[in-house]
Write the structure tokens for this entry.
Amino acid sequence: TTTASSSSSSSSSNNAQQSQLTGLPSRPIKVDTFKQVMLELLKHDTKDPALESIPPPDLTMHNIEQNNNNNANLTPVKRIKDIDYIEGPPVGNDYQTMRFANAKGEPLNSWSVATPSSSPRNHNVFGSRPSQEPQPFVAVQKDEVILQITIFHPKKQKKMQEFLVLGSQKLTELRDHIYCLNDHIFDGPETPSGMFFFEGVFYNDHRNKGLDYSVHIINWINSNNEYPAEKLDNVLVNGAYRRDVMQSTTFEDLTLRIGAYYLYMHQGNCEHYMVVTDMRLIHETDPNNKSLYPFCLFQRKIRRRKCRMCDIFPAKWETYGDKFTLENPCYFCDQCFKSFHYSAENRLLYNDFKVYPYFHE
């Protein structure tokens, strides 16, 4: 009885904590089904008085410049790669999402969690894997579904990144935009394996001959009587976990819950929580260039140490057991490391220490 009550209290505390962070999760729904229902609602609701009462925004550069002096509340237009957008995407519950929630009889916060977003910006940050070269313009389809996905830090459990992804995009496109330091240190660049876990399905990245993490996990679950499938809070097919391929699966193929915790795992044991905080049709204020997606809404600031010699430039190297330094580890920029450890003839002065590349905290 004591064990049952303690587990019940633990479960309730976990639910309370999740409710504070993201709200209670919604019921599972397939993204493609959500898209079809929303398009059907729009098709039969063209005479909606609530929609007709909202005047369409006139966002042309000519009218903005003409009316700028008369309308002090008009948000200025910025430009990213010749694409006009209004500062910030719609925050929280948009009108179509609210109508869908009401039609299904669900609480409003179960379909869309109001999460403040920072201004959109270029998603290529900190040397992430996608190309830094300008991408060609590819128009986004008008019936696209957009998902807002938050990625958490593996240890601090704080929001690390936030993206807008299109329903037609592959899971690998989101994975290539997730930045984690573990992908760049030690043997990280030589370890391409990765896995998403959504509603009882493991999606493995088999590009570059990546490992299948789910094989060992599923075998462990099946051999462990403490974790039977019927007691776990997942949508399982015939009471069993499934495996699929990440690079052949789109977000429209997924079954998701808004506000539920999912998993991204890479580098063997680096685990990031993921939360889908919104699912909606594309809006006219969203970037209409498909090359910009996944679109980064938020990137957590990083902390870089300065060189301990000059105290000017950011550190590029950290040394351990360096006998002529006052700190262990000690941090050096490129210029100070070379002048401190090499002679004028470019000969190493001593080698009884360890040195590693330094990125950030």
